[in-house]
Amino acid sequence: MPAISQRVHLVLLTAWTTLWFAVVQPNGGFSWHYLRTGGELLYAGTGRPDGGLALYAHHPELQMGPVSFLTAGLFNPFPEPVGQFLAAALMSLLGLVILVVAGRSAAWHFLGTGTNHQRLRQRVLIAGFAFIPMWIEVSVRFGHLDDVLALFFTALAVHSLTRGNAAATGIFLALAMDSKPTALVFLPLLLALPRGQWLRAGLWCAGLVAAAWLPFFLGSPEPFAAAEFTIPNQPASALRWLGVDDPQTPPWDRPAQAAVGLVLGCVAVRRGRWPAVVLLGANARIVLDPSVYTYYTASVLLGTLLWDVIGQRRLVPWWSWIALITLYGTVFVVPDDATRGLIRLTFVVVSTAYVLLWPVRDRRRRRRHPPSLRGGRAGSEDTPDVTKRTTPGMPTAPSP
Predict the structure, then answer these.
(1) Separation CA 301–CA 294 (nearest Å)
(2) 277-288 vs 337-357: helix axis angle to the nearest 10?
(3) Whole-number mean pLDDT of the chain?
(4) For residue 191, which of 181, 177, 201, 183 has the smallest C-alpha distance?
(5) CA 13 to CA 151: how far, in whole Å?
């Protein structure tokens, strides 16, 4: 593939995002009313008996975090169609920001290893072409601001992690959980920091989570009502292949999603493969969730994006495209529910086994200056860095 400049790389991704936005937006905003309602209730405060801190007790169907409702409320002064359009445009833009952040995270991660940054930029571009359709699915078609913010803050946490900034890593992970509780499965990223920074990062994270959620738990007589909300167990869910035939969400299901995601993430960090944490957490959700909404796949695509550009150094980001085709493409060409459930289960098993067990070469161990972060950096690069050299003692990271 010919070399591409930073400007061309961003222009292509922006054009791709704009195209998908234009196609999907006229029929988008499927779930935006949940965010709009939640924002209205939260900003209403004591002016409504079911608003303010009583929001979750009276509206268990609102499964988003308080940061999502605070953000959604900013669009409520506009007429509903205008607010929805502006929110969709902002969420689409955040997808582009995530791609830039992922590229810069990879640049910092491989700093001083002789990485060819033209190849890295090409990797981000190819993976971005797979990532954007699913990002538009979650941000425009469904309007799930909670998922958008949770994944955006997680990407910022990964960038902070590669920079060795413990406080920022903890803060961004907390904001992710404050946007959507399912982001809990990304917590093992904290363990990828140097051991001496665990406490600082953990305290920042715990403090901001408590600040966002405790007022609702202390200010409502039924604070756990939202946690008991259930949804139908769809015929196409992977749960059916695991022998779970309950018509609704089993009571153990959501705790199991969190537990499996956390355990797999910790194993990944232990094996020096922390860039797989997001993918493993997303896998735990889609394999154990009773529903099969296509927007769930956006979290998987963020996971494959991070693995493809940080966890390995092959030019072609295969896992991003495998995820897009198997989890999204098959929805349109495979009519049988049970078969789609088997495909989801197969993707989770194969991708999880690959990122945890597949042998990878790690040239970072042969660096003169060892990395500041704990854990290995997987992958190898065929071509030496000819686009940017790093001067010892003066680390600078390019912007793929």
Answers:
(1) 11
(2) 150
(3) 88
(4) 201
(5) 18
Distances in Å between the Cα of 398 and the Cα atoms of 104, 284, 300 are 7, 34, 26
Give the HSE-up count for residue 85: Cα atoms under 13 Å, Cβ half-sphere.
7
Length of the chain: 400
3-state secondary structure of 379: strand
Cβ proximity of 275 and 83 under 8 Å? no
Query: What is the Cα–Cα distance from 91 to 75, expressed in whole angstroms?
Result: 12
φ, ψ of residue 379 in degrees (nearest 5): 120, 175
Helices (H) then strands (E): counts for the chain: 16, 0
Contacts of 331 (CB under 8 A, 6+ apart): 294, 340
The answer to whether residues 133 and 328 touch, using CB atoms and an 8 Å cutoff, is yes
* Cα–Cα dist 147/62, whole Å: 13
Tokens (6 digits) for 171: 């803060």
What's the first-to-final CA gap in the chain, in angstroms?
Answer: 16
Q: What is the pTM of this model?
A: 0.89
DSSP string, 116-174: -HHHHHHHHHHHHHHHHHHHHIIIIIS--HHHHHHHHHHHHHHHHHHHT-HHHHHHHHH
Is the distance from CB of 186 to CB of 269 less than 8 angstroms? no
Query: What residue type is 65 in one-letter code?
Result: G
pLDDT digits (tens, 9 = 90+) for 123-163: 999 999 999 999 999 999 999 999 999 999 999 999 999 99
166-179 and 198-218 helices, crossing angle to 10°: 30
Which amino acid, one-letter code, is at 49?
P
